[in-house]
Amino acid sequence: MSAIPSPSFWKRVFLSEYLVLYLSVLYFLAAWPLVPGLASGANLRDIFSNMLPLLVVAIGETFVLIAAGIDLSVTSIIALCSVVGASLMTADNRVLGGSVFAVPVGILAMLIVGLLIGAFNGATIAWFNMPPFIVTLATMMFFSGFAIWFTQSNKISNLPSGFTMLGEGALWFVPYALIITVVLALLAHLVLSRTLFGRRVYAIGHNVKAAAISGVPVKRTTLFAYLVSAFCAAVASILYTARLETGDPVLGQKILLDIIGATVIGGTSLFGGKGKVIWTVFGVLFITLIDNSLNMRGLSHFVIMIVKGAVILGAALLDATRNRWLAGT
User: Fold this and answer.
1) Cα 28 to Cα 242: distance, rounded to the nearest angstrom
2) Spatial distance between the Cα atoms of 247 and 153, rounded to a whole number of angstroms
3) What is the pTM assigned to this prediction?
4) What's the total number of domains in the chain?
5) What's the average model confidence in pLDDT over 289-302?
6) Residue 229: CB atoms within 10 Å
7) Is residue 72 part of a domain?
8) Is residue 312 part of a domain?
9) Does residue 228 contact residue 201 with C-beta atoms inside 8 Å?
10) What is the mean pLDDT of the chain?
11) Is the separation of the CB atoms in 165 and 97 below 8 Å?
12) 64-92 pLDDT, tens per residue?
């Protein structure tokens, strides 16, 4: 019996929805001997910790990409929610500083800010038929600038321990960030796979005209997709801010490529109608492994960006090739 796998085996691997997970394992094994400390317990914890907030915001991006949209404003939502929440919770605040209401009010304010931006994005795109790229690019620029103006480029520190524990604390040895992320991921999976709203999101992504003719409320579904994206970005802002223990007006500024790249690498189509939460998990794992290993090698930010760009382009080409193969062309 031949030890060489048959062509049908490689075809199954190539078409498998777990392909990115396989590539993540292969990349880790290949980088292990080249990057000292890659497999150390401390570094694996860092990889895991870095994955969680990125996964949360990427899950929201998955919804809008499936609906044939895109949300570039998620990084500005992260930044603005961070400084708004921190300004309310900091002990320097004479109104809520030291109050038992500081943490719940701060968290609620962060979620409301995110949802308001998501509502603006969704309503503008749905009811004014404006391109998602332009709308969310404009809101990204506006709210990024607003966050910097709001704080005069200063970070906000002295946050209460009741909030910062969400970033580093644990419940029975299970990190709070992990609990929040897993619950959100499971809910997102159930919404996409088991609810009418999820089916409508896929229908819009496949063919918006056909969806409208079949009775799908396209405008309302589009609005809610952007609300989900903004909500997830606000939750990610809570996790990032709690972990850093600081409200930062430029928080998340450098991770837009990671957010969209991880979602696309996982298999969610930029053209809509295709995507799963589990695919996004694999994509986030892959992009986090690459980022971690290249940083440990001491490479410059520019080299890392070049490598990430090449990986994302390769993922897009791979997705196009797989789609043509499945279509039999």
Assistant:
1) 29
2) 11
3) 0.93
4) 1
5) 89
6) 32
7) yes
8) no
9) no
10) 91
11) no
12) 999 999 999 999 999 999 999 999 999 88
Judge whether 40 lies within some domain: no
Domain that holds residue 56: 52-253+269-275
Helix H, strand E, coil C: the string for the chain is CCCCCCHHHHHHHHHCCCHHHHHHHHHHHHHCCCCCCCCCHHHHHHHHHHHHHHHHHHHHHHHHHHCCCCCCCHHHHHHHHHHHHHHHHCCCCCCCCCCCCHHHHHHHHHHHHHHHHHHHHHHHHHHHCCCHHHHHHHHHHHHHHHHHHHHCCCCECCCCHHHHHHHHCEECCEEHHHHHHHHHHHHHHHHHHHCHHHHHHHHHHHCHHHHHHCCCCHHHHHHHHHHHHHHHHHHHHHHHHHHHCCECCCCCCCCHHHHHHHHHHHCCCCCCCCCCHHHHHHHHHHHHHHHHHHHHCCCCHHHHHHHHHHHHHHHHHHHHHHHHHHHCC
Which residue's entry shows tokens 């760009």? 309
In a domain, 281, yes or no: no
Cβ count near 15 (within 10 Å)? 11
